[in-house]
Specification:
By secondary structure, the protein is mainly beta. It is built from 1 helix and 33 strands.
Length: 362
């Protein structure tokens, strides 16, 4: 050991010094890439930190790999990402950070030959699609694995017209149309041979549903309201929001209901989930249909224009196009960052648009 204390400290510090990764950047296919630090070895790790307004995630990877896939469970659409090398509890300096923003890749068909697919919902690892049929009879509910996005199978057939779907955990809620009104049904998706059970009936034509906790919020397209019903003790439909013009789509997030008015010069309205008068959020839409809220973003299926639009759920309503050249999109939903779109024509299709990260600091 060196007898000079100051020299001993200097040697220890230099031995523990870690060089930073270089050339940190966004790579193809939602990856982050870098050049390994000078002097790195098997014990050197790169630590990436993703920070948004409300979310922080840490990801570790061997410094020798020089690439990592961006996590699919990031909850927001804009992150500041930093990287540094670490070894034996020592850390390198941090190179300039990246700012990444989520959008979506071009949509592609994953299922076709569906007769008027009007609604979708995700339960467990599956996407469920209600295909109402051309004459309103022999409607079917199909399912597609969200893991591979291609395996389509029949979940339920022989149904009456099914215009609305919603899911909570492994319970799927759907509507059934009859001449004297519509009913809400439920079925377990994780029990083989499970049979549907009536939740409540009978109401005016039910266009869409959203589940929040123990409540279903249901848009009645032949009236001016969105009603609430308990999924635990469904005694009555309770009007929550009135004064709407043919409400069609409904979605909920952070105590707010988003409701589309399915007319030619339509709007998306906002109202508190506890009730009250609705307020316009987005106007001058062409027959808006299904809605979805995910990762702080509101998605709108604009049937009349053949587009899916997106806007921050809390903001000024500025719109951007996610997908276009569609044939009357009627429903949208999001699972693990991937957007699913239903085209509601006779020979309907389901399309998906995976999440795509882009740099927004250049």
């Amino acid at each position: 050991m060196n007898a000079n204390p100051s020299e001993e400290i200097r040697v220890i510090f230099e031995d523990g010094k870690i060089n930073p990764p270089k050339n940190f950047n966004l790579g193809p296919n939602n990856t982050l890439i870098w050049t390994r630090p000078d002097g790195s070895d098997e014990q050197t790790t790169c630590q990436l930190t993703y920070v948004s307004a409300t979310d922080t995630k840490i990801q570790k990877e061997s410094a020798k790999s020089e690439k990592v896939t961006i996590p699919t469970d990031l909850r927001e659409t804009r992150y500041r990402v930093t990287i540094r090398a670490t070894k034996d509890n020592n850390y390198s300096d941090t190179p300039p950070p990246l700012t990444i923003t989520a959008t979506h890749a071009k949509s592609a068909t994953i299922a076709g030959g569906l007769s008027h697919p009007y609604a979708m919902a995700v339960a467990g690892d599956n996407l469920y699609i209600a295909a109402s049929g051309s004459a309103g009879s022999d409607a079917k509910i199909w399912k597609i694995s969200t893991n591979d996005g291609v395996t389509k199978s029949l979940f339920r057939n022989g149904l009456a017209m099914t215009d609305a779907l919603a899911a909570a955990g492994d319970t799927l809620y759907f509507t059934q149309h009859a001449p004297d009104g519509d009913s809400v049904m439920k079925i377990l998706t994780n029990v083989s041979g499970a049979e549907p059970v009536t939740v409540k009936g009978v109401r005016e034509k039910l266009a869409s549903m959203a589940v929040v906790g123990d409540s279903l919020y249901i848009a009645e397209s032949n009236s001016d309201l969105v009603a609430n019903i308990s999924t635990v003790s469904p005694t009555a439909f309770e009007p929550v929001v009135r004064g709407l013009n043919k409400p069609f789509g409904v979605a909920a997030a952070d105590g707010i209901l988003y409701i589309s008015e399915g007319v030619e010069n339509g709007r998306v309205m906002r109202a508190f989930i506890t009730g009250g008068a609705p307020a316009p959020f987005i106007e001058n839409l062409k027959s808006p249909r299904g809605l979805a809220v995910a990762d702080g973003v509101l998605y709108i299926a604009e049937g009349g224009s053949g587009k899916v639009l997106m806007t921050p759920a809390v903001g000024d309503g500025k719109l951007s196009i996610v997908a276009e050249d569609l044939v009357f999109p009627t429903a949208v939903t999001v699972a693990n960052g991937t957007l699913y779109i239903a085209e509601g024509q006779e020979n309907g299709r389901v399309r998906k648009a995976p999440r795509l990260w882009k740099r927004s600091d250049q």
